[in-house]
Amino acid sequence: MTKNVSRETKFLKKKPSIQLFLDASTSNTGVVIYEEKSKRILLDDINLSKIKKPLQMKPEDFEKLKFGCIKNYLDTLKNQYFITGVYMEGIFIYPKRLKSSQTLLKLHGFLMSYFIDTPQYFLSPSVIKKNITGDGHAKKETVREILGLKYGYIFPNEDISDAFALFASYHEDIDKNKITVKEEDNERL
Q1: Dihedral sign from CA coordinates of 71, 76, 82, 87
Q2: What is the pTM of this model?
Q3: 188, 152 contact by CB (below 8 A)
Q4: Closest to 161 measured CA to CA, from 177, 178, 173, 146
Q5: What is the per-residue burial (b if ≥16 Cβ within 10 Å, else e) of 48-84?
Q6: Coil, strand or helix: which one is 182?
Q7: Partner of 178 at 20 to 30 A CA spacing, among 10, 163, 165, 172?
Q8: Four-CA torsion 111, 112, 116, 122, nearest 10 degrees
Q9: Helix ranges restricted to H, 39-124
């Protein structure tokens, strides 16, 4: 008995499979793309901090604009790769920063719905910090410094290093020679 395979399934199998690690933010989202077959690691970001809100635009419309930019980036990835899993930092609320926490919750909701058909995995920031430094309450700068020393990179921003810390929490056997960073943003040690 022969199995019928749709054209869409055949097309998906031709794309390289990746795992996607995101440090979600509406100012700068850190991205790690892990190509499963080649074991190549691409460090990137979705830098929205350069987008300035027009004076007449409502804050909620500006938020939608930024979500649209993130969606465009993700659409490009989906066209280029078959995403086997999405990994994100768990959602947390800062009572003193309620407005930004609400925005982050919305962004996570958007990402969860965008990847509704893709397995999703979440780790809390304290678990990620503990995995990297041994201390779940370590400062972001300490995590970034340890990762930089271990893998030979000065990360261009904390969002990329946060996404890489998430990646390193799931992958212990990282070959630092397989790491590719946007050259204009990176310094090699």
Answers
A1: negative
A2: 0.86
A3: yes
A4: 146
A5: beeeeeeeeeeeeeebeebbeebeebbeeeeeebebe
A6: coil
A7: 10
A8: 120
A9: 59-80, 98-114
Amino acid 150 reads K
Burial of 168: CB neighbours in 10 Å, binned 0-12, 13-18, 19+: buried
- Written as six digits, the tokens of 26 are 């509406």
Task: Please give the CATH superfamily to which domain 15-172 belongs.
Answer: Ribonuclease H-like superfamily/Ribonuclease H (3.30.420.10)
What distance lies between CA 160 and its chain's CA centroid? 8
Domain extent listing, the chain: 15-172
Q: Which two tokens stand for residue 43?
A: 């460090």
* 138 DSSP assignment: -
Task: Tell me how crowded residue 182 is: count the other CB atoms within 10 A of its CB.
Answer: 12
Amino acid at 173: D
Residue where the block lists tokens 């509406």: 26
d(CA 138, CA 39): 29
pLDDT of amino acid 98: 65
- Distance CA(119)–CA(12), nearest Å, equals 16
- DSSP structural state of residue 67: H
